[in-house]
Each structure stands twice: as C-alpha cells, then as structure tokens.
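User: two proteins, same treatment. go.

Assistant:
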Amino acid sequence: MSASTATDPAAPHTETQLPWGVLISPPPGDLPYDDGGRMESPWHAHSAVILKAAYVAAHGGVMTDYYIGVNMFVYYSWKQIRNDEYRGPDLYIVKGVDGTKPRLYWAIWDEDGRYPDVIIELLSPSTESVDLGAKKDLYEQRFRTPEYFCIAPEVERLLGWRLGPDMRYHPLVPNEHGRLWSEQLGFWIGPWRGVYLGEEHTWPRLFHADGSLVLLPEEVERQRAEAERQRAEALAARVAALEEELARLRERSDR
C-alpha cells in the first residue's frame, strides 16, 4: 500500500544543529505519515491506547506540556527518507512540548531538535528482532532516548533500559511485582489482568509510585458510579430503618 502524505505549509527549513553535534538538512514538508500497516493483534492495538489514555488521564486529561505519538513516524534525517527507513514506534512521549499542536508525524527539524524521552515497542514475532536490535541501537545511539521499553504479548516479557552517563543503555530490574520504574514517566510499567473493550488479557498498565493502578477515564467513571450506588443504597437502608422505627413508635403509642 502506498504511503499517505501531508503537506506542511511552513517556510523552508534551515540546517539544524543537534545537541550532540549532528547536522541534518531538513527535507520539504511533504512526508509520508502512514505506511498502511496495522497492529498485529487486538492486544497490540489496545495496549498502546491503554498506556496513552492512562498517562493523559493522570495529567488531568490534557496534553499541554507533552506529546504522545502512537504508531506514528519519527523523522530524523534525509537518508532515512531517501531509503524509506521510516521509524514509527508503537508509542513515544516527548516532554516539555506543546502537545495540543496537530501533528501527522514527528519531524525533529520542526520540533527544535527534540527526540522522544520515552519509547515503548510492543513485541511480536515479526518485529522482535528489529525492536531488540536495530531499533534499540537507533534509539540509544542516534535518538539518545533516555528510556526504552519492550513489551511482549500478554506481558510475558517486560524489558526496559535507561541511558546512563556513558550514553549507553543499561537494563532495568523489575520489582517484586514484575514492574519497571520509569523515571521519565514517573510511573511503574507492569502487567495487569483484566477486561478492556470486552477482551480479557494481561495488559501493560501504569502504576503510581505507591503501587496503585493509574485508572483509565472509564474506570474512574465506574468507580464514581459504584460509589454513588453504594451511597444511595446506604441512604435507602437508613431511611427504611427510620421508617421501621417510626412504625414501632406509632404502634406503641396506639396501645
């Protein structure tokens, strides 16, 4: 399937100096943003959505100072574009940027040279070797992305790395619950068994520092509705008890 494109009306870009001294010459704004591919399974598609929804919900439902891309190209060089070497992480987060700005892709020459702060790849048999090999090397050596996570289906494996002072990735060690702490996100990433959109799986979820689950908006609403139901039932029980007591008092007074 041919790739979709979008035209950027911005003025021509000039050569950009990146923080670690790599010069890039930005291409025109007419870039592919969709390779026509699909996530390999409902677990893959929903997992990315769950992680994004949880992070956004934990930040008040707004993206004013960060951006999250899901299955979205990251452009970083002319050579990449000439060779059709598109890199679309399953999920990435860039902090300290205007997340409300509409984007069809992330082009670093349009973003002040900013690369993702966190990248998450959802492993599959067809992508695992690339995710753990070429992509890991790219994110470490070119992107300098501070944290990189790889999650296997059903969270059977959860791998994470953090960029050290030596500019190399060092593996993260899970806690007793099988979760990895992300300094960049400020949350644990770990397995959670449950139902999402009618499908029961072990999903990757975010957890607060104290271990409590970062709730999705629909989970917050369900909790609110359940609390309201319990309050209504408790009130009805108190009213029934008062009516019963009042009936007994009336019966006594009539004797």
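Protein 2:
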Amino acid sequence: MSKFIDKLKNVSKGYVRPMGFNAVASVPQPKMLLAAELGLEDLTDKEAFGGADVVIVSVGKASAKKLKETADMLGDTIWGVALGDKAADAEKMAKAGADFVVFSPDAEVSPLTALEKTGKIIMLENNLTDFMIRAADCLSVGAVIVDNQPDALALSWRKIMLYQRFADILSKPFLVRVSSNITLSELQSLWALGIDGVLISGSTGLKELRTLIDGAEWAVKRKRGHMSAIVPSLKMPASESVAPEEPEEPDEDD
C-alpha cells in the first residue's frame, strides 16, 4: 500500500477525536500536505527537497543505476515518479522503490493495472467537464492531482471556482499545483474548499512554504464529494398517486 496515498486519506478524513475514558493521547490536527516535483538533475543533495512531505521525480529515460542513486539519496522521504502518458516504465519504477506513480489520462491502462502495491495518482487538467471529473472519481486510482498551465499558477477567483467543482464532485483525495510564492491566506482558502495538498515545481521556496504550513492554524475542512444533480422526479410516490377517475354514471332522467 502506498504511504503517500495513506497520508492523503488521513488528511482527507480530517481530525478524529479519540473516544473512551482512557483516550488521553492527542491526535495531531491534519494540515495541508506539501509535494514537490523535481527532475533528476535537481536532486543534487538533500537540501533540494528538504521540507517536502513527498517528492515527485520527473525521471525521463533514467537508467536503473540512476534510479538506485536517486532512491538512496531520498532515503526515508516518500517519493514517486511522474510518468505522463508513458506508462511502459511503471513496473521498473515500482521495482526501484517508487511509492506511487503519477500519470495522465492518455497513459496506457495495462502497465498501470499490473501494479499491486504501488499507488496510482491521475493528473487532470482543471478545465474538465463535470462528467469527466465524475468518471475520474470512479477509476481505480488512489488520488487526483489537478494541474495548471505553468504560466497561470497565480490563484484567481476563476481558479477557486474550478477547484470548487472538483471538491464538490470528487470523493478521492486531491492536490492542486500552485506557485511556490502562494500566500497563507490562499492556502487556507484552498484548504477550506476541501483540498488535501499542494504541489510545487522545483525547490525554490520549498523551505519557506514548509515553515508557512507548519506555523499555521488549519480549521476543519468542509465535507465534499458525491455531488448529485438536482432534477425533478417524474415518478410520483405511491402514497400520493392519483387514482384513475371513474366514469360518471348517466343521470336516471336521461
């Protein structure tokens, strides 16, 4: 089972107060998870990913030796790989120690369904229709990442509305890609929608963002998922059904 998927699920469920007379232990209040996407060339030392809860590695055509070196450097840090639509290397990445794989909707199905212990995360564009978001929620994946165009990472009201759609429809944990200079109030706005984590590209601003998240108060998130359309029912309840009218008897004088 994927450690990162487990973390996301725990955050998504929210805080649960221990019950019983002997429940004195305090459960940490959930807070937003921080993921960083880095290329192999960026992983020069541990400082590159310090502060991230999880690292997503863009591996390209990495050799088995290079993957082994990457896994050794990351140590106890949870890490996965970004496959894009190239799912053929999924098994190789799993054998190298990847906790999960991230892929696009255009990735081939077979190599991914063969993974049993490795987590699967699908990356979706933020302009999908409601139907496609619902379809993604039914897939056998552990979580969703909502992606943005690299030149449009600033948080806008339009983007908040788009994320609101995902939060209302998805029941799976999900993250969104943001700029590393995102503010605390913006992070808390995303958290209030029900978003479980954020993903930044590169290591710039990673430590500052870690400090920001750790020092903040994280209120209880809104419940989300399984939004259904409101449509009028054409079927009348049995108790209120209208009995067929009986034909009127002819008047005796007629």
